[in-house]
Design a protein that fits this description.
The chain is an alpha/beta fold. The protein is 29% helix and 24% strand.
């Protein structure tokens, strides 16, 4: 089949890989000049298990607070009817426990296994690490995490509750002065550089110049203005004629909602922005070996090669908002609480604010759109990197008429 993919983030690139592996003729359209330039650019780097990640699903993190010193989300874009409606739906999902947590967690495990297989087959070095600690400052943090731990146990995730002493054996750089009420050790958890993986994979699958019948075609600096259903195809900015395809797979992140609206499909997706700071390694013995998550602060600290990345924060809307200094200070403070002296914070910093395309139940939409020829792989929120390889393989299987190896129950378009 001749298939178009809209979007070249980590989800779009992995989807292109899987479809090309199945023998399809694939073209990827991307409005930026390279892969992984938007939501995939500088993520926290966390792979499975997904539920302990900051802002994974409603009901699996701190309560939604919009005001005061302990606010968990800022309204950077102001109050609008759409934002208020989305917030109410997120809060209802959190209270009702209606997010498809088990499905998402199993999908993340499947995705990590698929990612490892791809990396091994093609010898991709993407700064991967294994193992994770979830750090609990108080007993209240432990009680709040219990629903997450129960889902992980039910999904067969290996975890153990360990003492502060054992935690510091696993991560010797942890400050001996930092208060630890408890620690959850996830030995099979993974992390790695999402953007680097996307770049390496793109170079491996891209067609050679002048060759149209082998490899994947990437059309950068190309904006898709509309997706068409009859005939199936895409309309590109600056081109008078529609490009026709047998199928289109939408992987366009926050731009997906507008493209779907042009087809009469309404999706309650918003952009929730988060921050990351990537800092040069200062002293390896004082830095994390792998990844840790501060459960109370909803901050992840990940070792990526010779850098340490601190990620967290949540801002609803505000696509062009200035960086929020208090949020960045919270990231620096959290790093210094746990790993003082591990990273160089006076120079060489990469500060990034990126949008997470988030749906009210935190889970993606994967599969058939209900419109012939249009397939969806969108709305992954904080889990784009964690879910990308699994979702890509599942969509490729569906397009081929095969039953995916992993359940997608609760991830269909029909729930909206």
């Amino acid at each position: 089949m001749k298939i178009a993919i809209v979007g070249a983030g980590i989800v779009g690139v992995t989807t292109a890989y899987e479809l090309a592996s199945d023998g399809h003729e694939v073209t990827v359209f991307e409005q930026r000049s390279a892969v992984a330039e938007e939501a995939s650019f500088a993520t926290a780097g966390l792979l499975a298990p997904h539920l302990p990640s900051p802002w994974a699903l409603p009901g699996f993190g701190p309560r939604l607070r919009l005001m005061g010193a302990h606010a968990t989300m800022r309204l950077a874009g102001g109050i609008s009817r759409a934002n208020v409606g989305w917030l109410l739906r997120w809060r209802r999902a959190a209270r009702a426990g209606s997010a498809p947590a088990a499905t998402v967690e199993r999908l993340a495990q499947y995705s990590q296994a698929r990612l490892k297989a791809i990396a091994s087959q093609h010898e991709l070095d993407f700064e991967a690490t294994d193992g994770r600690l979830v750090l609990l400052r108080t007993e209240e943090d432990r009680a709040r995490l219990e629903p997450t731990l129960q889902v992980l146990r039910d999904c067969g995730v290996g975890l153990r509750e360990i003492s502060a002493e054992v935690a510091r054996q696993i991560e010797p750089g942890l400050s001996p002065e930092a208060p630890l009420a408890g620690v959850i050790h996830l030995p099979d958890a993974g992390a790695g550089n999402s953007r680097l993986f996307a770049q390496l994979l793109r170079h491996g699958i891209q067609a050679a110049p002048g060759q149209q019948d082998s490899g994947v075609q990437f059309a950068f600096n190309t904006r898709v203005e509309r997706i068409l259903a009859t005939p199936t195809g895409v309309a590109l900015q600056g081109e008078p004629d529609v490009r026709r395809f047998d199928a289109v797979v939408l992987c366009a992140g926050t731009a997906s909602a507008a493209l779907l609206a042009g087809l009469g499909l309404r999706l309650p997706m918003v952009a929730v922005h988060g921050y990351s700071v990537s800092a040069p390694l200062r002293e390896a013995t004082h830095a994390p070996r792998a990844s840790v998550v501060d459960a109370a602060q909803q901050v992840a600290i990940t070792r990526l090669g010779q850098r340490v990345r601190i990620a967290g924060g949540a801002e609803l809307g505000g696509a062009v908002a200035e960086h929020h200094a208090p949020t960045l200070q919270r990231l620096y403070r959290t790093l210094n609480d746990w790993f003082p002296g591990g990273a160089q914070l006076s120079s060489g910093l990469q500060i990034w604010r990126g949008a997470r395309p988030l749906l009210p139940d935190g889970a993606p939409v994967v599969g058939d759109s209900g419109i012939p020829g249009l397939w969806l792989n969108i709305g992954h929120g904080a889990g784009g990197w964690a879910l990308a390889c699994g979702c890509a393989r599942a969509v490729a299987d569906q397009i081929a008429g095969r039953e995916p190896e992993v359940s997608l129950d609760g991830l269909g378009w029909s729930r909206f």
